[in-house]
Amino acid sequence: MSKFWGFVDNIESYICRTLLAIFVCLLFLQVIVRTLFAFSFSWVEELSIYMFVWFVFFGASYAAKMGAHNRVTFQFKFLSPRAIKYIEAFADLFWIFFNVVFVYLALDFIFNKMNKFQSSQTLGFHLSWVYIVLPIAFTLMTIRVIQVNYRKLVLDEEMVDPDSIDLDAVKAEAESHGTSSSEGEK
Q1: What is the pTM of this model?
Q2: Number of structural domains, the chain?
Q3: Domain range spanning residue 126?
Q4: Where's the Tripartite ATP-independent periplasmic transporters DctQ component domain (predicted)?
């Protein structure tokens, strides 16, 4: 059962990896076929575009899970870390509200307002299969924003931005490499 929940907890990562691998392989195939045989598959580019769009939206959900979305944080420079947590959580309430409204509007568009005969150019399937990523990804993103805030506020976990750099560790590593290389030159 824990494997199942581990899979569910990382579903965006697995989806992104799969989509990336498939559309890169498809585009590579398209380049090879065009170069060697002066021929192209008309459906490859369209499918790759749709897969890339799905990749972007699931990637945004994964970034929300990691707490890695861009934020303007200069105004927090003079505040305590505790205050920053609560201000960010308050800002995340607006994000959640936006996501919920967006999910509602996307579902309304897909099921009520979208042209019933609108299909993809070369693949021929109904475009609702492409647009369905919007409510799915924004729902996942909302769940991830709530999950991150639960971890920060209730469990009191320190969320580290995966893109943040520990400058002291980088300097220490650079100095250790600089010392060992200068000793080797002597």
Answers
A1: 0.78
A2: 1
A3: 2-168
A4: 24-151
